[in-house]
Amino acid sequence: MNSLVYRVLPSISKLLTKSNRAFASTKNVKHNDKETLVIGHRNPDTDAITAAIVYADFLCRTNVKAKAYRLGDLNNETKFILKQASIKEPDMLPDDIPDGTNVALVDHNESQQSMKNLHKMRITHVIDHHKLGDLTTSEPIFLRFEPVGCTATILTKLYREHNLEIDQKMAFLLTSALLSDTLHLRSPTTTKEDQKALEYIAPLAKIDDVKSYANQMFEAKSDLKEFSTKQILLLDYKIYTFNNEKWGVGTGETCNMNAMLERKDDLLKEMQEEKKRSKLKGILFSIVDIIKEKNITLIPSEYEEKVVEQAFKVDIKQHHLADLGSRISRKKQIIPLLEAYFHGKS
Q1: How far apart are CA 29 and CA 266, in angstroms?
Q2: Residue 88's beta-bridge partner residues?
Q3: How many Å apart are CA 143 and CA 175, to the nearest integer?
Q4: Which of the four pLDDT bands, split at 50, 70 and 90, describes residue 17?
Q5: Distance in angstroms (rounded) separating the CA atoms of residues 58 and 17
Q6: CA-to-CA distance for 219 and 196, rounded, in angstroms?
Q7: Residue 267 to residue 285: CA distance in whole angstroms
């Protein structure tokens, strides 16, 4: 077994069959207190959705009754992937989840990014590749954290460590998530573990041309014609707290940066509205060119402009736009610099 396997710990920063059974859909969603609800983060990306489906499958196959749910609408990339795999999207998590319900978190561990009333649930598992957040538990739980580019890499390891066969559909989802989260292994978050996982899982997915398939995924993600400005802003959006300041940081990955920049004024207006709605101190939205690996970040006010200039050491020459160069990873290249900036002010 790997040195990084399930660990049972008493706390972690108030959080921390087969596939059809794992995410079967019903008109009236019902669950009991013995079922573990598996969820990714709010405003879910491909990794959050596929990780919930795949981990629910893994839990069912290790004798834990589980079902995947989602905490938001799917982006076009994820819709494309599920359609290709002939898999129905998970149900939206209902609002009336009873206190004490078993919950497993995947692809996140911060309460601001998770379900409402998470502190009233019984967190049983956390599988993630992000930094530790604010979660704690009242009893030992199953944890698996690794500094890799995608939750799918960790899930692939879990199947192999438990000598479980990965069927074609689960392999297809894992491969898709790896391609998405690592931008086909080009993201700075990519590790050798991600590369090894993709080499192992891609043949099981039976994808004839992985490069061509990845490009189809990215094209689907870039198709935002039917999305409102608010939907675009919140498609890949997370809340963070820096020195008690609440910030929203969104990302729009695209193969056509110019098309998204044409909506700049509407996006800036929506950012100001979101700032008021969610009582944010600051908000940023990075437009990331997947092909050219370039980041242009929208800045709605002078306050955010000052923070960005100092945190990223850039001169903002065009009002409301910051060229952040090749900083295309929010997890590795955006949030750490913002945290360092605010830490230096404390």
Answers
A1: 37
A2: none
A3: 23
A4: very low
A5: 10
A6: 25
A7: 9
Residues 6+ apart with CB under 8 A from 78: 44, 45, 46, 49, 50, 89
Q: Is the pLDDT of residue 45 over 80?
A: yes
Residue 100, judged by CB atoms within 10 A of its CB (0-12, 13-18, 19+), counts as exposed
Amino acid identity of residue 238, one-letter, is: K
Two structure tokens written together for 204: 């099981």
Amino acid at 103: V
Count of residues making up the chain: 346
In the numeric block, which tokens belong to residue 236? 């890949």
What's the mean pLDDT in 246-264? Answer: 94
Contact present, 189 and 181 (Cβ < 8 Å): yes
| Residue whose pair of structure tokens reads 């009893």 in the numeric block | 139
pLDDT on residue 228: 94
Q: Are 175 and 201 in contact (CB under 8 A)?
A: yes
Report strand pairing: 141-145 vs 122-128: parallel
Flag whether pLDDT at 106 surpasses 70. yes
